[in-house]
Amino acid sequence: MTRSRSTPRVRLIAALLALAIGVVAVSERNALRGLAGDLAQLAGLACIVIATGWRVWASVFIAGVKDATLVSTGPYSACRHPLYAGSLLAIFGSGLATRSVTLTVLLLAVSAVLHARAVSAEDKLLSQTHGAAFDRFRREVPALWPNFRRYAVPESLTIQPQILRKAFFDAGSILGAYLLIRVADLLQTGGVTPTLLQLP
Hints:
With 200 residues, the protein is mainly alpha-helical.
């Protein structure tokens, strides 16, 4: 398996999600119960679906040219780091799925710190690689919060199926984490797993 600059961050987030799934399985979460909990889980699923679609779409534009070309169309015309933005939205959705304010804040806070570091490192690398063109791009395009008034797509695009397949695999992994959170929640609320913690 190829190790990229993002591998440690991805592994840490995967471990954090695994820990959250374990905590959901053995905790009673009191802040979001009943209808509020159901709505939180539906909102979490909506965030994850939007995030995975956004990440796949962003991958179409950057696949195979990430380090050689300054991509500034499609999702990259709206924000400089749409893959990171999608990841943060998916993490927020995963947090909502846990029906815990504590877990949602924890997941989002750790992910925000990790992604802020990644944004800084990537901006530095792109500035070194593309010079004034990237510096202008950085001034005009927000880092993570998309400005859809800037959104523009080219008339044609070359797609690399292998990289697109990886994007779909990543999207499936995110949806898989949501399903595992839901299963852990159902096991806990159904009394199959013990209640060892009380979380807000």
